Structure formats: structure tokens, C-alpha cells
Model the fold of this input.
Amino acid sequence: MNILPFYLIEIILAVTALISVGLIAFRKPLPFVRWFFPLLALIMIALFLLQGSSLWIFGNFVSKTLFKHMCIFIILSTSAIAVCRRQCRENPESFVFIVLSVLGLVTMVSARHFLTLYVGIELATFPVLAWIALRRENELALEGALKLFVLSAVASGIFLFGVALHYCQTGSLDYYFFLNLHEANFISPIRPFLNDVPLISRIGFSLILVSLLFKVGLVPFHFWLPDVYQGSTMRQVAFMSTAMKIAAFAVLANIFREFQMINITTLALLSIVFGFVGALYQSNIKRLLAHSGIGHAGFIVLGIDANFFAFGYLIGYVFSLMIVWQVLISLRRESDYEIELCSDLKGLGKRHPYTAAFLTLALLSMMGMPPLPVFWGKLIVLGLLVSKQMIWLAGLCMLMSVVAAYYTLRLIYYMYFCEDEKSLQQEDRSTKVKIGNLKSKKREFT
Amino acid sequence: MAVIPFLLILIPLLGGAAVLFRSSDNADKVKKISLGVALATLAVAGLMMGLFDYSKSNFMQMQWEPFKLPMLGVDGLSLFFVLLTAVLVPLGMLASWSGIQQSINRYYGLFLILESLIIGSFLAANLVVFYIFFEAVLVPMFFLIGIWGGKERIAATFKFFLYTMAGSVLLMVGMVFLYYLIMTKQSLSEDHQHTVFWCFLLAFAVKVPMWPVHTWLPAAHVQAPTGVSMILAGVLLKMGGYGFIRFMLPIAPIACYEWRWLLMGLSSVAIVYGSLVALAQTNMKRLVAYSSIAHMGVVTLGIFSATLIGLTGAVFHMISHGVVSAGLFFVVGVLYQRTKSLDIADYGGVAKAMPLLAVGFLFLTCAGMGMPGTSGFVGELMTLIGTYKVHPIWAATIAIGLILSAIYGLRLYGNTMFGPLNKNLPTMPKLEGVEKVVLVTLVGLTLLLGLYPNCVLKTVEKSTIKTHRWVQSVKQARSE
Done:
């Protein structure tokens, strides 16, 4: 069987990373940085069209189904935002970090074996850590990188422990034995929640679930998101909140698709509440989007079920989020500092009407305004909840999205109803940078 | 034929988007273009009226069904609401002709987009399409009130948006629940009807607004600019009533019948409470806003009285109230524009300075009071008869409401128009040409509807008979 097209994306990523390292070692510039990821996404489409969507299984480690193809494609497209030419000139290692992280994400998504999954998770997280920590002089960045490091390491440890327990029970690390745990006891294939699965596997399952929920950002495991996002630059946050989240959800869908996530309902509801309510008081725009990401993650997790995944919601949310990030990144160019506070958006409606219009559209979409994408996603999730007879939960979740409406409207209010204070702030900003280390002590707490 | 509803939505939408992205350098040109688009929409609505088959007005006509899915259509119930919107929007534009100073292109663009979305919700043949337009209406309203409104506009617009959205998200849940029942091929049993009832109730109750959830209305109305107030009171409130009749009564008649005492009680409270609070107001706009609450209380009383004549009266009263309250807000807006004050105490003897306005205002006040000959009488009478059939005590609340509306209406009129000319008033120029057009049109519509209500009633009746049949079957089943 012709393996090359099957593995083409991973091979290109790995080879590019090695070549980039070589070029950096010899202090040569990286010419291909700008069009690398879009080209890769196009190659993905070409591969898909040429080879079809049949299930590919290579050994027992990796497989590519239609769902995985789609996820990989979206990961590649959203990674394009992570690449910044200026940063790649000053710190060309950041490009290598991005490429390696994307390689890890692709591996994570196409994994069929817990070892591959583990390699993917680690490969995805560590380069991002180093990338965030590149800004050595910024205290917030170092804090974010350190938090991500420590907590990711703990989560990986828990993950390995869970996998080990599962291996103890079933003797194999392949997904097949995970997905077909019921066959261990030959009881009926419809399992409410692991009732007929032996205890050790149940514990292992829970630990693996905990570790993946950490990556997604669900509620008891969400504390790292706002701080890490605040410490990163816009492009880093854009990459983390889109590509890494998609990969985490894809893994969740792959592994847990055989089990009904009924016990996750409580966590999802708590995420929705804490995410949206927590975003109300944020004045830093990255923290606000982190909290809103937690809330939306709750919605998406509610949409994971046997044979079902709220893919539409994820796609709609990610695309709206991409627009938001792109607008925020583009606003940096005019002022040479990053948009930190929500109130930095003041007067945008007058300064850049079209940009403000796009941002408004994307924000309204994230709020769930019909006929924009996330509304249809919410319909899908609600449909799933209603079919499980959980109407009260559906109503509660929708009431929470009204809470989300408040901070969205506040951002729109800043853009259109407020006067432009940029000229005032610019003078403040230059002094703020010098005393930046002192100012950073005064942060918002969730 | 199917293209007409589609055009009705598309023309103002595209026109609004085009106007929105022009620069507002040439204010006159922007205003004229947007008025042209609104008049074009009115022309298409007139065409729709002409092509409508009145003998079959209980069926959905001119359906636009892409991919075999009914999306848009018009029947006897929605025809007049669409026409009301198409008439009120140009009038609203004329009312704000000289009142809006900043970002004129955005104002008129948003106004047109608002018109498109409202018409879309009335033309929806499908609950999902209705919901899309129902929610989407909030966005242009948010901007219109928030940017061009009065002093406390930000709080008012946030309150309006969040309140209304909180109601309509439950509508979404109810909608999904219905879809699930249809997909699993279950019939709508009584328990299911109750669930759907409660989900739908909150959404439409906030929109109408019914009594406990009415508090967004005074804030939004007082702070909104004149043209927006006219549309808000004239058409937006009717979306809630229309939702009740179109969706809630046919889908959940058992629940509507069983809970009718609660809803009739809330409507009665709205009538009496709204009128009493209107009596105590010193702010003209707030007085008219509370009178709107009272009138919509009459409407919901008629809808939930489970009688045919009550239901038909409610529909007529919605149309009439649309015209009358738009007119009242217009008059208040005219006065505000000249003196920049909304306090009744600052006025007096305006009839001496602006006689035509005084005449028009009197007609509109009489219509608000339910004077026979004006449109207000017909709806109130029919609702009165309908509720009397249910229980005479409910009818008494309408009577109390009528008396109170006479008191506050005439008090407002007398204190502003009659008496000696208040010395503190600046010189009040007479009505300009565009203002005369608006006033004459609205007063003319009031008189037309009042003197010949059958022009509307005979078409509406067929549709309401169809809707009433659902409730009637429940009534018969219960009384056996």
C-alpha cells in the first residue's frame, strides 16, 4: 500500500522542522514561513480528493477517518494565524515550535493507540510552552509558560496513570480495547455509564478523561486558561484557543464516543456557568476570550455522545474566534502595542468601520445570534439534550448564553458607543512599559 | 408569485446595507435614497395586497419554498402586519427627517435592515425562520437606541436586548423540543403541550409585553429616538402578539385553555396597572409607553379569552394600536424636537401655535381612549364582548382601563395643548411638510379603520377562525 500520501502531512511537518532548525543554526532566513500552513492545508484537500475518505489503518498506531481528516484540515488552516513574520525574523525558533506543535496535534488527532496519543500530546504542548517563554523579559509571559508547563506535566502524569490502569486491566494500549470495554464482560453493548466495566478500567477511564478535560478547559480544570492566555501574545493565544482546542475535542470525540457523557453533564453545566459569568468582570480581552472559551467548551462537551459530535458548533465557534483574533492582531499594527484591555477597542467604529463591522459580526456569532454559525451549533447541542429528555438543562444553558450576550454587547458598546481614547492612552502606554513589571502585579482574579 | 415575500425582505435588506456603507457626506441624498427604498417596499407590499386571494385568506399564500421547505408565506393574519410595517417605516423615516444629526447613513441603513427583519418575522412560514428573524431584530434595535437615543440610552438598550433575549432563548428550547417530537414521530400529548406552552410563553410575554416582564418597555421607549419609538411601539410589540396567535394557540391549545385564567389575570393587571401608572407620569413619552402596555394588555386579554370574537378583536386592536401609538409617539417627538423637553409641565397652549398638530393629536388621543369612529373602539369593543362571554368581571377591567385611558389621555392633551401658551416655550414653528404627511396619514388610517373596520376584519376573520378552531375543540372536549 502506498504509504506516502497517507503520511504526507506529518512527513512534511517533520522535515520542515528539521530544515528550519538547520537554517537557524546557520543563521539563514526562513523563506517559506508565510505560506507554509496555507499550502499544507491545500495539500490536505488535494490528498483527500485524490485518495478518498476511506478508513486507513497503519499498523495499530494511526488511522485516518473522515472525521480525523476534517479535524486535521481545520487545525492546519487555523495554524496559519500563528505565524508572524516579524517574530520569525527576530526569533526564528518560534516557527519551529509552531511546526512541531502542529505535528503533535496532527498525531494526537490521528492516534489509534494510547502511546501515539501520548507522544502527540507532549509534542503539541511543549513547543508552545517554549514559544510563550520566548518573551523572557515579560513577567506575565513567563508566568503563563510556567503555569502551562507545570499543569500540563501534572495532567500528562494523570493521563499516563490512567492509561497504565487501563493496560493493567486489558493488557493492551490499543483504542480497540478501550472502545470495546464492554466486550470484556460480554454484557449488552448499550452502557449507560460503565456499569458493567471492571473497576480498574473505570478508574483509568476517569483519569484519562480528567487529563483531556484539562486540555479542553472544562471547569474544575480550567484555572490555567485565563492566566496562560494573558501572558501570551495574540498569535499564541489564537493558536492555542483554536488549533489546540480542536485537537483536544477531536481526541475526546475519538476516545469517548462509545460512552455517553452523562456524568460530564454536571461539569459541562458548571463550565458554562463559570465560563460566561467569569467573563463578565474581565477587563483584559484575552482573559475574557479565555473565559468565553471555557463556556463554549462546556456547550461542545454537552454535544459529545455516542455516534454524535457537535462538530457544527465547534466549526462555527472556531471560525468566529478566528475572525476575532485576526481583527485583534491587525489592530496591533497601527499602534505598535497589543490590544490588552477591552477598553482599547473604544472608538473602533469610527476609526476602522469595516474592521469593527467584522468584529461585531464575529462577536454576535459567538453570542449565538441567528443566522450566524454558532446559533446552528447551539441548535444541534440543544437537539441532543432534548433527545436525552434533559429539557431543564437545555433551558439553563440557553439562559447562560444570555449572560454571554452581556459581555459581547459591552465590547460592541466600546466599539461603537464610545469615543476614541487612543491618543490619550498612547502617552500612558510608553510609561507603562517601563514600569510594566510593577503593573503586572495588579491582575484581575477570576 | 413566490418571489414577492422574498423581495419584501430582500429590498430593504440590500437597500439598508447599501446605505449603511455610504459615507454620510451628503445627508439629503442618503435620506432620499433610504426613503425611496422604504417606499419601494411599500409598493411591493401593496402589490402583495393586490395579488392576495382574499377568499382563501386562511391559507398561506405566495409561499417561497426552496428545496421543498416552506420558508416564507403570507396569509390573512400576517398580511396586515406586513402592510403596517411597510407603512410605518417610511413614516418613521419622515418623522426623523430633521431629528437625526450624526451618522445619518448608519441610522437609515439600520432602520431599513430593521424593517427587513421585522417583515421577515411576519412572513415566516416556519418556526425556525421566525425565530431567526425574531432574534435578529434585536441587533439593529440595540444600535438604534444606543447611539441615537436619549440621555440614559445605554442602560435602556442593554436592558431591552438582554431582557428580550432571555425570553426568546426559551423559545429556542421549545422549538428544538418540537423538532425532537416530530422527528421521533410522537404526537403532542398534554404534557408535551404544557412544556411547549411555558417555553413559548416567556418569549412572547416579554415581547408583548405582559405585565410582570414589561419593565424594559418604558426605558426603551423613552430613550429611543422618535422614528425608532414609532417602529418599536407600532410593530415590534405586535411580533409578540403575532407569535401567540400564530404559534402558541395552534400548537398548545390545551395548555392555553387550561392556563387562560392566569394569562387573562396578567393581562387585566397590565391594563389597570399600566393605565394607573400612566396617570402618574410627568414625562410625555413614558406616559404613552405605559398606555402601550395597557393596550397590549387588552390584546392579550382578547387572545386568551378563548373566544372567536376576542381573538379577532385582539388582532384588530394590534393593527389599530400600531397606527395609534405610532401617531402618539410621533406627536411627542414633534414636540420634543421643538423644545427638547419631554415634561408635561413645560408645555401649555401649544394648540395656539400648532393648530394642525392639535387636531391630529386629538384624533389620536380619542383613538387611544376607544372613541367610536376611530380604530381604537373596534378592537376594544370586540375584546370586551369576548371577555364578557368568559366572565363579566374580566370585562370590567377593560372598562376600567377605558375610563383610565380617557383620564390620562385627556389630561395629557389638555395640559399640553389647551390653556394659555406657556411663557417658557420657545417659538414653536408650525408643522413642516414631511410632518404633515406623517400626521395626516396616521390620522387617516385611524379613521379608515374606525369607520370601515371590515376592510381588515373580513380577511383577518378567516384566519382567526382557523386558529380558534383549535381552542374551540379543547373547549368542547372540556365541557363534555
